[in-house]
Amino acid sequence: GKDGGPSDGVPHQRILAPDDPAARPVLHLAEPGSDLTEAVRHCFDLATEPPLRTVLFSESPDHHTVLLLLHHIAGDGASTTPLTRDLAT
């Protein structure tokens, strides 16, 4: 329905208002010693979370890795190429 809930099994798009808390990026802080491989295996629940997830791994005070997970429903090769280019600059 219009509230983003089930639509009787019919695929639908949920568009969030910019001021909706669910539209804000969420940064998950990885536990010390967490495995990047395990984080990559995150299974999205599209009914309850956005199709984008960021995880920050802090190996030391001056060495960090940001993992950006994008569900295939939200991006493909054509969209990830400019995204990675933008992140690199």
UniProtKB/TrEMBL annotation:
Residues 1-21 are annotated as: Disordered. InterPro entries: CAT-like_dom_sf. The lineage of its organism: Bacteria, Bacillati, Actinomycetota, Actinomycetes, Kitasatosporales. This is Condensation domain-containing protein. It comes from Streptomyces sp. SID7499. It comes from the Bacteria.
